[in-house]
Write a structure and sequence with these properties.
- By secondary structure, the chain is of the alpha+beta class.
- Helices cover 20% and strands 33% of the residues.
- The strands form seven sheets. A seven-stranded antiparallel beta sheet has the order 5-6-7-12-11-10-9, sandwiched between helices.
- It is globular and about 70 Å long.
- The relative contact order is 0.13.
Length: 488
């Protein structure tokens, strides 16, 4: 627990919570959390608006200076814990840098904060004295086992400038339980989520300190137990540093930032949602020249579906990118085992769960290196991504708003991002560091075969089949200027 020198019973009784958000030094960690949560929820979301704002906040951050107070872990303050519990967590009036309100339903939790602008924000760091034995520091405030097994922990220390700028309201959905307790003399909320094992959900601990002006967020990925996460939180050495240069943004600055963000977002969405005209998709047998990007051109020669991978002409096991992954989902006859699939709407919300069979799509293509590489190029990408299109209200083709994803506990990634998992090649090249890349001289060309795993309901629906296109890696994959190749 945290020993607080000269802390009076009155201050303890008046403690209230603050809610967390990213701090300047935690932005890189934020991306990992967003990706992990996206995986768990199957939302597939990319960098969030909050993370983007956090980047700008990071750019504004100054070096901490001034007086420093380091709070070391020590024996629990039994009186403080008892007084807070007797008072009722979250009910006492806050005296300090902020106040908060918490609203809970059966499956949601919402936190709203009011900042006391009369008190200056401070810099805060939190370093764990304890980590589970298999974990080490990965990068800054990220800790992990070094394996992709869900054993990662991230600690964010958030000051009031962070909270004021982009965290005055925080909403959580799919909540199973919010356990209120005391950690290091601070009110702490332990949040767990519904269907945690099935959907590989993470866990959160929030520690609120309105008196000193910060919130700590201790995040654990799906394979980290709440007991381990609590031990980490209890071991934190917290450093509070006064920084005369750290200040709140004015309302005018916030309004200007919000305006610029909105304009940029609207411009981006308009460009992406513009899509392509049907006639702008390169037809089968025609060449898509993208020499302006990496100097290559691509031609789809033919495409066909197969029930068994062994039926694909010229199939060579050496061409499989990840044999272990493939073998886990392959029957003896080369057919694909069914898997459990989510259908997600445009807001990444689950609308259906069903068992789904899979077929194999083999695509024969020709790549030609039209010109010599620039000095920073080191090869030509042969791989591509399978994209589902749909027609918008203007008759143009855009990426389908709904999407499919495996239930996380299935551990199925053969269709990850729609990428091919096979490229016909020899064993001499299968261990290349850039598996789907080849070095080519100007004027060289090569015809090759890729294989994709495709859900059975897509492969057997003629309308869906017609809406499948390829997006070659060598095109640059620019969402504002998509250059697709037809398959039929």
């Amino acid at each position: 627990m945290l020993k607080r020198e000269n802390e009076s019973t009155e201050n303890i009784l008046n403690q209230e919570l603050v809610i967390p958000e990213e701090t300047q030094r935690k932005i890189e960690a934020a991306y990992d959390i967003v990706r992990a949560r996206s995986r768990a929820a199957q939302g597939g979301q990319e960098k969030t608006e909050k993370a983007e704002r956090a980047e700008r906040l990071k750019a504004r951050g100054q070096e901490a200076s001034g007086s420093r107070r380091v709070l070391k872990p020590s024996a629990a303050i039994a009186l403080a814990a008892a007084m807070i519990l007797l008072c009722g967590l979250g009910v006492a009036a806050a005296v300090g840098h902020f106040t908060k309100q918490v609203e809970e339903t059966d499956s949601t939790a919402s936190y709203t904060f009011e900042v006391n602008y009369e008190l200056k924000p401070v810099e805060v760091t939190a370093v764990p004295e304890y980590l589970p034995e298999d974990m080490t520091v990965k990068d800054g405030d990220k800790y992990g086992s070094g394996k992709e097994d869900g054993r990662d922990i991230t600690i964010w220390a958030m000051n009031m400038a962070d909270i004021d700028y982009y965290c005055q309201t925080m909403d959580f959905t799919g909540v199973e339980k919010v356990e209120k307790t005391t950690i290091q003399g601070m009110e702490a909320h332990l949040i767990t989520y519904q269907d945690a094992e099935k959907n590989r959900k993470s866990k959160d601990i929030y520690m609120f300190n309105p008196e000193d002006g910060y919130v700590l967020w201790v995040w654990g990925d799906y394979a980290v137990s709440m007991e381990e996460l609590e031990k980490v939180a209890e071991s934190l050495t917290i450093t509070v540093t006064e920084n005369p240069d750290l200040a709140y943004m004015t309302e005018e600055e916030k309004a200007e930032e919000a305006r610029l963000e909105k304009e940029a977002q609207e411009a981006w969405e308009a460009a992406v949602n513009r899509g392509v005209a049907p006639e702008d998709i390169t037809a089968v047998g025609e060449t898509l020249d993208v020499s302006d990007f990496i100097g290559a051109s691509y031609t789809v020669e033919e495409a066909a579906f197969y029930d068994s991978l062994y039926e694909v002409p010229g199939f060579n096991p050496d061409g499989v990118c990840d044999r272990e992954e493939l073998e886990a989902w392959l029957n003896e006859d080369g057919t694909h085992k069914p898997y459990l699939r989510y259908t997600l709407d445009e807001n990444a919300q689950i609308v259906e769960e069903k068992e789904m069979g899979v077929k194999f799509l083999a695509v024969t293509a020709t790549v030609r290196q039209e010109k010599a590489y620039d000095e920073w190029d080191n090869g030509t990408p042969f791989d591509a991504v399978l994209i589902r299109l749909e027609e918008n209200e203007n008759g143009r083709l855009v990426q389908a708003s709904d999407r499919y994803a495996a239930v996380p506990s299935e551990d199925y990634s053969l269709q990850r991002d729609g990428s091919c998992f096979y490229l016909n090649q020899t064993a001499d090249t299968m261990n290349d560091s850039q598996y789907f890349w080849r070095h080519m001289e100007a004027g060289d060309s090569q015809t090759y075969t890729m294989v994709f795993a495709v859900d059975e309901d897509l492969a057997e629906n003629q309308e869906e089949i017609q809406n499948l296109v390829l997006w070659f890696n060598g095109t640059g994959n620019d969402p504002e200027n998509p250059r697709y190749s037809a398959l039929w």
